[in-house]
Specification:
The protein is of the alpha+beta class and about 280 residues long. It contains 6 helices and 11 strands. The chain has a single domain, classed as Lipovitellin-phosvitin complex, beta-sheet shell regions (Roll). Helix content is about 25%, strand content about 45%. Strands 5-4-3-2-1-11-10-9-8-7-6 form an 11-stranded antiparallel sheet. Helix 2 packs antiparallel against helix 3.
Length: about 280
């Protein structure tokens, strides 16, 4: 327990240990414009394990499994292909920096070899120009380690879960930061200015609460409209006002930094169009 009569520097470090941790993950993405809505949900289980350290920074193996799209078995060819091709990057070994953000992919060769097998199998199972075009788009993100890393920053789970919470919160138990979302609007990076706050909990646990607002000057209007219309059928033509918020709550061990649960919401609103991504992660034994 802390002695409240003294001043402490609140420093959160990554020291998970080598025991694997299992999580249940849910990602909800919604587009709403007036009375029109489009929603999608992805659920899966994830196993994480620290494999070692490179230059004193951790390498974590991330294994996703049992993916379910929109709470049902895939009933369209595109849903089947999406889940099947995702297997190429469902097992990752990623390196984190001291703050806990992803800096590189360690097992790039393993991933590209797996992709070649999956690509050949998918082409044989679903012949046709449309499928070949879809596979060609996916393959571009696997051309180099840097392109794969850029693609992973658009992964709702990885980008939010590893958002840089391991740092010095000081005596005031808060710190300013920048959060970049690459998954809310595909192809558009949105920058949020945030404040992370340390909150002491019982049983030597800590809550890291993050609040932030969109830096609207970082958004290119023409590119934003084009990206929204490419992703949806909402036919956005123009907008007058733009705003966005990010809010997250992470519960973890103060001693080891091991995350027990995480919930985050990222949104952007352009007049009557609202796009929101909600991520829920819970430790699962």
């Amino acid at each position: 327990m802390r002695d409240d009569s003294k001043s402490y520097l609140s420093i959160l470090k990554f020291a998970w240990g080598e025991e694997p941790v299992n999580y249940k993950v849910s990602v909800d993405l919604s587009f709403q414009k007036g009375k029109e809505t489009q929603n999608s949900t992805l659920q899966y289980h994830c196993r994480m394990q620290v494999m070692g350290y490179m230059d004193q920074t951790p390498v974590i193996r991330v294994e996703k499994r049992s993916q379910v799209l929109n709470n049902k078995k895939p009933d369209t060819i595109i849903d089947e292909i999406t889940l099947e091709t995702a297997e190429a990057i469902n097992t990752l070994e990623i390196r984190l920096n001291p703050k806990g953000r992803i800096t590189s992919v360690v097992n790039f060769e393993e991933i590209t070899n797996r992709w070649e097998r999956i690509k050949d199998s998918t082409s044989e199972k679903y012949p046709g120009e449309a499928v070949e075009g879809f596979l060609a788009i996916l393959e571009k993100s696997l051309e180099t380690p840097d392109k794969l890393l850029f693609a992973l920053k658009r992964d709702s789970f990885l980008s939010n879960f590893f958002s840089g919470i391991y740092c010095n919160y000081g005596i005031v138990q808060k710190t300013n930061d920048t959060f970049i979302s690459g998954n809310l609007v595909p192809g558009i990076e949105l920058t949020y200015a945030t404040e992370k706050k340390w909150i002491d909990l019982a049983e030597e646990q800590v809550e890291i609460a993050e609040l932030g607002e969109l830096q609207t000057e970082s958004v290119d209007k023409e590119q934003f409209i084009k990206a929204v219309n490419a992703r949806t059928r909402l036919n956005l033509l123009n907008y007058n006002s733009l705003r966005g918020e990010v809010e997250s709550k992470t519960i973890l061990s103060e001693a080891t930094g091991r995350i027990h649960s995480h919930k985050s919401s990222i949104s952007i609103t352009a007049d009557d169009l609202k796009i929101e991504n909600i991520l829920k992660v819970t430790e699962n034994g």
